[in-house]
Amino acid sequence: MSGLEPAVEINCVTHEYPGGVCAVCGLSLRIERGETVVILGPNGSGKTTLLHHILGLLKPKEGVIRVLGYEMPEEAEKAREAMGVVLQDVDDQLIMPTVLEDVAFGLVARGVPRKEAERRAREVLRELGLEDLEDRPPQFLSGGQKRMVALAGAVVIDPELLILDEPTTGLDHLAAERFVEVLSGLKEDRPNLTVILTTFDVDVAATLADRVVLIRDGTVSVEGPPDEILTDPGLLREHGIKPPKHVELLHELGIDSPPLDVEEAVEMLRSMGLHG
Description:
Blueprint: E1 8-17, E2 21-31, E3 36-40, H1 47-54, E4 62-67, E5 70-72, H2 76-80, E6 83-86, H3 99-109, H4 114-127, H5 143-155, E7 161-165, H6 173-189, E8 194-199, H7 202-208, E9 211-216, E10 219-224, H8 226-229, H9 233-238, H10 245-252, H11 262-271
Parallel strand pairs: 3-8, 3-9, 6-7, 7-8
Antiparallel strand pairs: 1-2, 1-4, 4-5, 9-10
Helix pairs in contact: 3-4, 3-5, 5-6
């Protein structure tokens, strides 16, 4: 990846909504190609507004944004050709009569012949374990299935940049776990894929992130490796984020540098005689 310009470069971006509310305030962020960055912050911290700027849906009051080498929002149409997106409300992007047609839609819109688009869509559905859903109407799927179908539609175009806005919101534990597992597998198979994901779920961040970015009051407050950021309960609470339960427990037991990995934490507790 050396020598390549970053996937995303944001310099001193400010965005104000009507009434003078500053949703993004002088924010700067650089995301390298092939990197998975998880943006953590509570509701209202500016996460979704930041993504909308990366997508070119908003024009900043101040600052410069470059995505995949394109100036945003002026060249957004070109940049989006290489971007896959899973929205927070996936119902807004599942618009076709069947799952197969929906997953193939992005390819057809890019000029791929329908038969070829459907062939590639079937390949992705098989890859994600969704082949049994291809003839189902998307609107009648479960919440977890809808997010998986939206993910299939985002990756079928073989994007350079994948953007996911709070993708596990509203999912039960098993559905969220499955979504994260599938996304991890996709990243392993596509190491050059850049992923930007917003969430308030530390478990998602711990599993997926190369780097964690904490946002507060519309700007980057802290960023770093997950095993540094996510093992500091005080820092997370300051940013309105609930720390991992095992990290909190180990801190209460006087362990200042707890492991982020749960299995390592269990072994630590066993060595202390506190776990059966």
